[in-house]
Every structure is written in C-alpha cells, then in structure tokens.
TrEMBL record:
Name of protein: Glycerol-3-phosphate regulon repressor
GO molecular function terms attached to this record: DNA binding; DNA-binding transcription factor activity
Gene: glpR_1
Residue ranges of domain HTH deoR-type in the record: 3-58
Organism name: Kushneria phyllosphaerae
Alphabetized UniProt keyword annotations: DNA-binding, Repressor, Transcription, Transcription regulation
Length: 251
C-alpha cells in the first residue's frame, strides 16, 4: 500500500471510529509504529487530525479568528446561545467567556435582568452596555487578538477575589477521554482558571466540536457539569459524554 493510500485509510477510519491507535494501525497495515507515527505527524501538520498519546483524534474545525467567525451567521450558534441565556437567574454572578457564541448569549440576556457578569472579553462588555441591571466586571490583561480576550498573569491575578455561580465556557474540542481543549496555550490556562472560580461550568459547543480535540487541554471532561449543543446533534456524539456524567442540553 502506498503512503497516500495508507493516509487516506487512516483518515477514513478516524472518521468512522472517532479515534485511531498507532499500534493497531501498525498491525493492520503491516508497517512499523514509527511509520504510522510519521503518517500521523504529517496528517496533523496538515490540520487533518489531532495527535494524542498512542494515536490520534479528529481535529477541531474551529481554527478561524474572531472576525471571521463573527461573520458566520449560524442557527446553531443562536440556539445554543439562547439556551445558555435562559440559565442565568436574578442575582447570580456569572463568568462569561469570550467567543462569538458568548457574544450571542450576551445579546439574549433579558434587558430587565439583575445580575453581575464577569468577563475577560471586551466584546461581551460592549454588548452589555444597554443592560441597566447587569453590573459588568472586566478582567484586564494582555489582549489575545485572535479571540479578543485578555490572558496572562494580570488576568489570572484579577480572578483571585471572584467567586461566581456559573461559568459559561467556549471550547474548540470536547471529547469523552481527551477532555476539553482549545487552540492556544494561554487561553487554555485562562479557561481553567475561570472554571476554578465558579461553582459550575457550562460548556457551549456546536456538534462539530464534539469528539474532536485541539492542541491544548483545558481540563478533563468532568470540569463541565453541563454541555449545550444543538438538538440535531447525533446521539453517537452525545451518548459518550452523557455516560461520563455530564448533563447534555439539546438547544
């Protein structure tokens, strides 16, 4: 079997089975594990999969910057955001992540809601200007322009005195065993810190982020108490997450 044929078969198995194991592929194709690891490395370099210890997982498709993602109108995004907004109740202290779905959620918070929103996203803060009952606390730090959020030591330090009721998190990868992940190391640290300062974490994700992984791990799946996805999501994607003890909300 030629190299390109083997790679195509690896991708086909990954799509069909949700993950591949280097040792199993080696035995199946009759080649060394070093050869398989090289194939996986090259496919990962093309953004076609995400390497993990012992094999690979599907790569998250969420790689575009904020401006590009903001221009994509999505019924899925609006449905997930609307479901998340309904979870916020009067008097809560809420941490709201950055990202286009979080901005959409902020737009859907009731104008008469009385609550406190803590955010490291200037975009979220601007969306809440016309909500008179919502107190907005902005976490400062270095601006990560890709997602328009603050990160770094200053942002982490600003969290030290905050204890929130709930954190609404955005991710680029959700996997039953590989956990929650994102595409930037500092963002991963920041999201983990935000989750540590909330009583519970709700993840907002589209179905294409399920059973997928990005390079930087935010935490185990157990970090999330609830995951919101669109109602059309296939059961094969949600069942492993529900089996792991996470509440699935179909928006």
């Amino acid at each position: 079997m030629l190299t390109h044929q083997r790679k195509n078969e690896i991708l086909a198995r990954l799509k069909r089975e949700g993950q591949v194991v280097a040792k199993t592929l080696s035995e199946c194709f009759g080649v060394s594990e070093d050869t398989i690891r090289r194939d996986l490395r090259e496919l990962a370099g093309e953004g076609l999969l995400q390497r993990v210890h012992g094999g690979a997982l599907p790569a998250s498709p969420a790689v575009a910057d904020f401006a590009h993602r903001q221009g994509i109108e999505s019924e899925t995004k609006r449905a997930v955001a609307a479901a998340a907004a309904k979870m916020v109740t009067t008097g809560q202290v809420v941490i709201l992540d950055g990202g286009t779905t979080a901005v959409e959620m902020a737009r859907r918070l009731p104008r008469d809601l009385t609550a406190t929103v803590v955010t490291h996203s200037p975009s979220i803060a601007v969306e809440l200007i016309n909500h008179p009952g919502i107190e907005v606390i902005i976490i400062g730090g270095r601006l990560f322009k890709h997602s328009i959020v603050t990160v770094g030591t200053a942002a982490m330090e600003a969290l030290s005195h905050i204890r929130a009721d709930v954190y609404f998190m955005g991710v680029t990868g959700v996997h039953a065993t590989a956990g929650l992940s994102t595409g930037d190391l500092e963002e991963a640290y920041m999201k983990r810190a935000l989750a540590a300062h909330a009583a519970e974490t709700v993840v907002m994700a589209s179905s294409d982020k399920l059973n997928a992984a990005s390079p930087y791990m935010i935490g185990e799946l157990s970090l999330a108490s609830t995951i919101i996805v669109e109602k059309s999501t296939q059961a094969s994607l949600t069942e492993p997450l529900a089996a792991a003890g996470v509440t699935m909300v179909m928006a």
